[in-house]
Amino acid sequence: MALTGKTNDIVAAAKAMHLTRAAAFLFYEKDDPIQRLIHRMKYSDQPLIGYQLGKQAAMEVQDTDFFDGIEVIIPIPLHPRRLRERGYNQSEYIARGISDYTGIPVDTSHVTRIRNTPKQALQSGEGRKHNVEDAFGVNHPEQMYHKHILLVDDLVTTGETMRSCIRAMRLFRGAKITVFALCKAK
């Protein structure tokens, strides 16, 4: 597996959100082996797939400047109800795999999911945007002022979840944000 690089959609989103960097590790297509792997990670109680893929992604990009200057990794949070149902946050497992390889600490306390939204996969393109509007909150933003943060998600389709989370993170004054998705939908 190789780093897919900065796909056009991710680069456009990065410019629109004033991000430092953005990348996805794998492409995700319907009926593809990657889709089956991601579904096993998310829905078949196999979170270690995320950990291993996060670690593999970090190894693949070690010779680039992608992780340079990043001080903390924040996985996209699940709402507490969904976390209880699933038993784990797959994005946190991906983040922990990256962390174990890079040594960058993971933080799960400063960004929270404050609205229990329906699954993004069940939403239309426009519905995705409204579904995650104001879904995230932050705690103690002053502790993240001027930090360089890596925001990690499992799958980016339209980028609306990342955008919504970043809007909440604007309270982290002066923070730089780099985004990483394990997969980018084609």
Sheet of most strands? 4 strands, parallel
Residue windows where pLDDT falls under 50 for at least 5 positions: 1-7, 9-17
Q: For the CA atoms, what is the radius of gyration?
A: 15 Å
Number of strands: 6
Distance between the termini: 16 Å
Described by the principal axes of the CA atoms, the overall outline is: globular
H/I helix tally = 7
Sheet-strand content, in percent, reads 15-25%
- Helical content band: 25-40%
TL;DR?
Helix 7 links the parallel strand 5 (148-156) and strand 6. The strands form two sheets. A four-stranded parallel sheet has the order 1-6-5-2, with helices on both faces. The protein has a two-stranded antiparallel ribbon with strand order 3-4.
Which SSEs are present, and which pair or pack?
Elements lengths: L7 H10 L3 E8 L4 H11 L4 H13 L11 E4 L4 H7 L3 H13 L8 E3 L11 H8 L3 E3 L9 E9 L3 H10 L6 E10 L1
Parallel strand pairs: 1-6, 2-5, 5-6
Antiparallel strand pairs: 3-4
Helix pairs in contact: 3-5
